[in-house]
Design a protein that fits this description.
Layout: E1 11-15, E2 20-25, E3 30-35, E4 42-54, E5 57-63, E6 69-75, E7 80-86, E8 92-103, H1 112-128, H2 136-139, E9 140-146, H3 155-163, E10 170-179, E11 182-190, E12 197-206, E13 209-219, H4 237-244
Parallel strand pairs: 9-13
Antiparallel strand pairs: 1-2, 1-8, 2-3, 3-4, 4-5, 5-6, 6-7, 7-8, 10-11, 11-12, 12-13
């Protein structure tokens, strides 16, 4: 696990035995905390060091203006914080507290890109291999936005397109790339035009459904052996990508 999975933007409320503290993860370099009650009541923005420990666990340490030093072990799977603090007078505190998420992170720090790729792959194979229009309502948002000028807007138009699709249409998925809420898939489709076409489809995923779509299509051409060129599409490229990962 890398530091990129630290849930920047998240705000949590930690409940210790003697007080509660709000922590806002401003970045991988800064944290804001606020203790509203008890003998430690104050608020401050501090510089932090974050060390990923694996399985959504991070060691987060900082020093406060009064000289206090704090090390938190933040476990985001179990929603627990283990805190060790040394106060200016030398007193050492060990505290454990559970926390609730007040505000979600700016970006998901779990396996969202992988889950989004699975949604896109299921949608493309269900519609353009199996021609199953019944999956549209489950996989596509009600206000689905279509950027292909030859296809009408909305989910109902997509269902009509699939239900009227020729049996000659067949889609082969290839490489997939995902980041944040976007997924790009490289593929080949037969029966959509007079010749096979290589296509890149880009989807925006929102709340687990496909919300927006862009595509670029190009007629497939044979690779020139005299140029030492490789093919535009390889049916095994998706498998090769999985093996590399």
């Amino acid at each position: 696990m890398s530091i990129e999975r630290f849930p920047v933007g998240m705000e949590i409320e930690v409940t210790y035995a003697q007080f509660r503290a709000n922590l806002t993860l401003l970045s991988t370099q800064q944290l804001k905390f606020e203790i509203k009650e008890g003998p430690f009541a104050h608020a401050e923005v501090v510089d932090i060091e974050v060390v990923p420990l694996g399985n959504s666990i991070f060691a987060v340490s900082w020093q406060e203006n009064d000289g206090s030093t704090v090390t938190n072990i933040q476990d985001y799977d179990r929603c627990v914080v283990y805190s060790n603090a040394t106060l200016p007078n030398g007193k050492f505190l060990r505290m454990n507290g559970s926390f609730e998420i007040i505000r979600s992170a700016n970006q998901e720090f779990d396996d969202r890109p992988q889950r989004n790729k699975e949604i896109v792959l299921e949608a493309m194979t269900s519609l353009f291999q199996k021609r199953d229009a019944s999956t549209v309502e489950r996989l596509y948002a009600a206000d689905y936005i279509q950027h292909n000028p030859h296809i009408p807007q909305g989910r109902d138009a997509l269902k009509t397109l699939v239900s009227q699709m020729s049996e000659d249409v067949f889609y082969e998925p290839g490489l997939m790339i995902a980041e944040g809420d976007l997924v790009a898939i490289h593929g080949r489709i037969r029966g959509w035009a007079n010749v096979p076409q290589v296509v890149v489809d880009i989807f925006r995923v929102e709340d687990g459904k496909l919300a927006e779509h862009w595509d670029v299509l190009q007629n497939e051409e044979r690779a020139s052996s005299t140029l030492g060129a490789v093919s535009m599409f390889d049916a095994n490229e998706g498998l090769q990508q999985k093996l590399k990962n």
